[in-house]
Design brief:
About 40% of the residues lie in helices and about 25% in strands. The chain is an alpha/beta fold. The chain is globular, with a radius of gyration of 20 Å. The termini are far apart. The structure holds adenosine-5'-triphosphate (ATP). It holds the Pfam family ABC_tran. Keywords: ATP-binding, Nucleotide-binding, Transport. Belongs to the ABC transporter superfamily.
Length: about 260
């Protein structure tokens, strides 16, 4: 695997607060990479800056070798970096199929003249969008709701629809902002399975999430931020046992962990 997304030395301050203080990391193509850290560590600022929703003070972002630093969000999306948001954004009154058709249309090569004249380009765009929609809906396990209004779906299922919408234009990577926040715990597994299925089909994800168990179950690589800096990165197993991560998250110092072990012995 090679890096599809490379961020180097990201810097962003808010009136003296260093939200990002030189953060660098890579996301490998075909991976699920997690970005975690305690409250205020800079996760949201990082993904907002990467996806063009905030301006960086410094640093670079490259996508598939192309410099996309500080481009407007819509051009970053067009370059192949899509994102989802903490709060779900779907059209409740429209069917799942229509939600996905609208998502595809934003990037459609066919214009209104093609549509008016029903050109071959228009017919091909509609056909490939429907094929993509059916494939994605199957991968997220919602095929029985394809024609149903999305309003009837659970919050977790709507999050999956928003994810499928982000995937419609065949992006190089999707950045997910807290995909299981607010989701009923009994539904979290559905999202986990859907992401695994999509990843097996070749999709790449960068996930920001507070639910560390979800991240460590799912991710090949985990990056940990603390106070605007990268504290560490590694596999889920490495992160789980890293004393610096335990301290940052739980306030457990290596000495306390050792004392606990001695006490239990
Ligand atoms: N618009 C803003 N104005 C001023 N300070 C901000 C702003 N946005 C973020 N910050 C500060 O920047 C730092 C990083 O915030 P950020 O929201 O990126 O962290 P986070 O890891 O996403 O936190 P959380 O997990 O609580 O969402 C924090 O100290 C925060 O208070």
């Amino acid at each position: 695997m090679s890096a599809i997304l490379r961020v180097s030395d990201l810097r962003k301050s808010y009136s003296g607060i260093h939200a990002l203080d030189g953060v660098s990391f890579d996301v490998e193509g075909g991976s699920i990479t997690g970005l975690i850290g305690p409250n205020g560590s800079g996760k949201s600022t990082a993904i907002d800056c990467i996806s063009g929703f905030q301006k960086l003070d410094g640093g670079t972002v490259t996508l598939g070798g192309t410099d996309i630093t500080s481009r407007p969000a819509h051009l970053i999306a067009r370059a192949g970096l899509m994102r989802t948001f903490q709060t779900v954004r779907v059209y409740d009154r429209l069917s799942l199929a229509d939600n996905l058709a609208i998502a595809a249309q934003q990037f459609d090569p066919a214009g209104w003249i093609d549509e008016f004249l029903r050109t071959r380009r228009y017919r091909q765009a509609v056909e490939s969008s429907e094929q993509r929609a059916r494939q994605l809906v199957e991968l997220i396990g919602l095929q029985r709701y394809y024609e149903a209004e999305t309003g009837i779906l659970s919050y977790g299922q709507k999050k999956l629809v928003a994810l499928a919408a982000a995937l419609m234009p065949h992006p190089k990577i999707v950045v997910l902002d807290e995909p299981v926040a607010g989701v009923n715990p009994s539904r979290i597994r559905e999202i986990e399975v859907a992401l695994q299925q999509l990843n097996r089909a070749g999709e790449t994800f960068l996930i920001v999430e507070h639910n560390v168990e979800f991240i460590t179950t799912l991710c090949h690589q985990v990056i940990v931020l603390e106070q605007g800096r990268k504290l560490t990165e590694g596999t889920a197993a490495e992160i789980h046992t890293d004393p610096r991560v335990l301290e940052a998250y739980l306030g457990i110092t290596p000495e306390m962990a050792a004392a606990e072990v001695r006490g239990a012995a």
